[in-house]
Amino acid sequence: MTDIVTPALDERFRAAAAAEGLLDVAYDIVDDTPIGALLIGVTDHGVCRIWFDPDPEENLETLARLHGPRVLRTSAPVERVRRELDEYFAGKRQHFDVEPDVRALPAYNQRVLEELARVEYGSTTTYGALAARSGNPRAARAVGTVMNRNPIPILLPCHRVVGSTGKLTGYAGGLDRKEQLLRLEGALL
Amino acid sequence: MSMTTAIPPFETFYEEHKTEVLRFLGRRLGSDRAEDAFQETFLKALRAYPRLEHGDHLRAWVLTIASRIVLDDVRRRKPQGELPELASEETWRPAFEELAPLTEGLPPKERAAVVLRYGYDLGYDEIGVALGSTEAAARQAASAGVRRLRKENA
């Protein structure tokens, strides 16, 4: 019967769309990480998005608005970051080789996230210290907002930024996840 | 302000229309060739997607892309078999394979209208979209084509 689009036919189209370079964003949903399901978006320039607790309908609209309407689920372009995340969760990777794509963000956010990317695995820093390194020591609150809106958590390690007293303070993915990631990295005992 | 529909993410558009497009192609081409045409249809749609100005009539849009691919596919195939008898408009529904060579002598627009109407069973509204004109013009082109065929085959 030709009435039903078989998984093979569906997969063939999706793979061809990616292989021909026709997508603004390729995404996939990874269900089986230690911190729950993740929706991961990838452009030609790198990883543009990682969502905790995916809500595909809303997430796809956001991807289309920020990066262009050709958003399609297909696994191949996401495979590399997926593998690096697997290794990270298994404790076998401390640094990501895939590039983040932050082009859709305001310049200030890009600058802060660039500094954030330098915070090493297993260490933590504070909002104030990160603000200072981004050019304005008094912008701790603004840095907090940038962290809260970080489009690529884990890869850009906003979980390594804590309050000046060492308190974990906040995390867009929930404090439990922040704690879990810091424990995995040995930054919390 | 805008009265038009927003363009959905391609994933949403694809999921919404993929089954109907495959059924359409299956009826026109048979299951073997429908699968290649399916991929071709959605790759074409993906290439054209950034040029869409709104999300209205996306179903007609993708079916139009699919019908053009069907027409190209039919044109590539060698005409075969003898000319079928012409029957009245109500009962005259030869398969598109028979219609393609039969209508070769018609002006392009009439031929497209005849083939889409009687070979593919599209409605005149859909044919109008496919031809980039109106429902009335499509109806007129199809009946002019049928008259011309009757005359030629009389």
Structure notes:
- The complex is a heterodimer of chains A (189) and B (154).
- In chain A, strand 1 and strand 2 (36-43) form a beta hairpin.
- In chain A, helix 5 (127-133) crosses helix 6.
- With 189 residues, chain A is α/β, with parallel strands linked by helices.
- Chain A has two domains: 7-89, Double Stranded RNA Binding Domain; 107-184, Winged helix-like DNA-binding domain superfamily/Winged helix DNA-binding domain (Arc Repressor Mutant, subunit A).
- Chain A is globular.
- The mean pLDDT of chain A is 95.
- Chain A has seven helices and six strands; from the N terminus they run αβββαβααβααβα.
- Chain B has 154 residues and is an all-alpha fold.
- Chain B has two domains: 1-78, Rna Polymerase Sigma Factor, Chain: A (Orthogonal Bundle), CATH 1.10.1740.10; 86-154, Arc Repressor Mutant, subunit A (Orthogonal Bundle).
- Helices cover 66% and strands 0% of the residues of chain B.
- Chain B is built from seven helices and no strands.
- In chain B, helix 1 (10-29) packs antiparallel against helix 2, helix 3 (58-76) packs across helix 6 (124-131) and helix 6 (124-131) packs across helix 7 (135-152).
- The radius of gyration of chain B is 17 Å and the shape is globular.
- Chain B starts with 9 loop residues before the first helix and ends with a helix.
